[in-house]
TrEMBL record:
Coiled coil spans: 74-142
Mnd1 HTH domain ranges (all copies): 1-70
Transmembrane feature ranges: none
Functional description taken from the UniProt entry: Required for proper homologous chromosome pairing and efficient cross-over and intragenic recombination during meiosis.
Protein name: Meiotic nuclear division protein 1
């Protein structure tokens, strides 16, 4: 469709382009039906060209007019080339800056005897640190803070269990008074052991 504008060097409305675009490329009615070029596809292609700034669009009155001239395409391509060259220059400069920063970072990191010795000491200390962490894990169960937290948690759990036991005794007393049910019958009906009582 871009060629249509360049060959005619004219401006068109969308309806004109929908009629002319298939004919301009030598597509007959049979071929048009076969490859299913619809008015919507002409509109989509045209919108893509407008979005890419290849075809210009201007609303005059109630109509939209579309045009593109070869000189405009040439200028557009020149601008694109200029933009790409500027981007290339910027990326080249950035590449040089990165190379300089790498060279600066490598200064003082040459392989010397003292550096090699320090790196070996560092590796040895890191390994020893890992071994100490593993050793510490073995004694974690004896940690006083952890033991104190477990004691507090067990007191809370015991209080909660006794609270629920008291609630069951309340229900048991209600059933005994309301339904004349003995404590043994209540326990057997609800699957409670005979020695069911609070935790001391």
């Amino acid at each position: 469709m871009e060629d249509l504008f360049y060959e005619t060097k004219d401006f068109f409305q969308l309806k004109e382009l929908e009629k002319m675009a298939p004919k301009q490329k030598g597509i007959g009615k049979d071929q048009l039906a076969r490859i299913k070029i619809a008015k919507a596809s002409v509109k989509d292609v045209l919108q893509g060209l407008v979005d890419d700034n290849i075809v210009k669009c201007e609303k005059i009155g109630t109509s939209n007019y579309f045009w593109s001239f070869p000189s405009a395409a040439l200028n557009s391509r020149k601008r694109k080339v200029d933009d790409l060259e500027a981007e290339l220059e910027q990326l080249t400069k950035r590449n040089e800056d990165i190379k300089k920063s790498i060279a600066t970072a490598q200064d003082g990191r040459e392989d010397t005897d003292s550096r090699t010795e320090l790196l070996a000491t560092l590796a040895e200390l890191e390994q020893r640190n890992e071994e100490d962490k593993l050793e510490l894990q073995k004694f974690r169960e004896c940690d006083p803070v952890l033991l104190q937290a477990k004691d507090k948690a067990s007191v809370v759990a015991k209080d909660a269990a006794n609270r629920w036991t008291d609630n069951i005794f309340t229900v048991q007393a209600y059933c005994r008074d309301k339904f004349m049910m003995s404590g043994a019958d209540f326990n057997s009906n609800f699957g409670l052991p005979e020695d069911f009582d609070n935790i001391p």
